[in-house]
Amino acid sequence: MTDSASYGDTGSASGTHVLFGQAMGYVAASAGFFALGAYLARDVSYAWTWVGFMAALACLIAMNFAQQSASASAGLLFAFGLDHGAGDFRGPDHVRFPAAAALNRHRLRAADGRLDLP
């Protein structure tokens, strides 16, 4: 009796590495488009973020119908990243929130030398 199961031909290791590399490339590119979309839509109102969200949802639905074309699927994936970044619901106040303002609330009081925490 053996401890390992035989799955037949599961593909070569180099083919698996190539496929994994391509998938991670698509993930990295769509994350880059997400960041670009969030940057481009940093000054839009909260209502316009719904437009970006709906456009991202439309891209996901369209990718289901574009399964036969690799270039159309990749383009829709990148458009999804861009639209999803633009539809980020945190809004412009979160994107431009200065880090120093958070630290400004917890000032060290010079009079008594203690840290003022909430």
Describe the structure in your own words:
It is built from five helices and no strands. The chain has 118 residues and is an all-alpha fold. It has one domain (13-104). Helix 1 packs parallel to helix 3 and helix 2 runs antiparallel to helix 3. The model is unreliable at 108-112 (pLDDT under 50).
Put the structure in a nutshell:
This protein is mainly alpha-helical.
Tally of individual helices: 5
Listing every helix as H and every strand as E from the N terminus to the C terminus, the arrangement reads HHHHH
- What's the rounded overall pLDDT mean? 76
Question: Total domains, how many?
Answer: 1
- Structural class per helix/strand content? mainly alpha
Uncertain parts: 108-112
Which of globular, elongated, flat, extended, rod-shaped describes the shape? elongated
Largest sheet: none
Q: What amount of the residues lies in strands?
A: under 5%
> How far do the termini sit from each other?
65 Å
> Considering DSSP H and I runs of 4 or more, what fraction of the residues is helical?
55-70%
How many individual β-strands? 0
State Rg: 23 Å
Task: Kindly list the characteristics that best describe this protein.
single chain; mainly alpha; 5 helices; 64% helix; elongated
